[in-house]
């Protein structure tokens, strides 16, 4: 291995979030040009020694970069920066959400996208869109009433709002994220008492219904406000969970 190949990796800090921390460090070096297209990455052993993480973490981080189209692997030669290292498409890989902080970043992104979408949906929705949104709400209610988390139904309701914008790019963007946009695995719903889950379900239903009514009635300002209120409260709940974990 050439010294210049390993020098960049000697500067990688300890990865506090394990795989994601290492993956983000590698991505930063690629995006900055420190690692150039076609350049060979150091061996797994060299990265382990430079960062102090395990071989499993190194392999998972490299797998993340391959999934994003940033590196390629050549049999017997190792990993290389792709000739066109810019990701071909943006995606949120479910395994990326390995901490509540990352869930909060997803919610922040959702707010930016869905806030505008709610206003457009209120302006452009059709009678078919209204029926679709009502159906999605009913399905979500049934899922929660039957004791489920309703993650897929929640995703479907939010996607129906994007469809109502009459701009297909919104729906396609949401499809890229998949159910990672509704990260119920971090909500700790299974740790709630029956009463707490009932209250949580009622609050979610009230928030969803406020969004639906505003869009149905063609009220752009109310639709944006209701959407912001819903995702802001979700953000606050995840922040509380994060802070509670920090103080354990």
Automatic annotation (TrEMBL):
Residues 16-84 form the HTH gntR-type domain. The keyword Phosphoprotein does not apply. GO terms for molecular function: DNA binding; DNA-binding transcription factor activity. InterPro entries: GntR_C, TF_FadR/GntR_C, Tscrpt_reg_HTH_GntR, WH-like_DNA-bd_sf, WH_DNA-bd_sf. This is FadR family transcriptional regulator. It comes from Rhizobium changzhiense. Pfam families: FCD (PF07729), GntR (PF00392). Keywords: DNA-binding, Transcription, Transcription regulation.
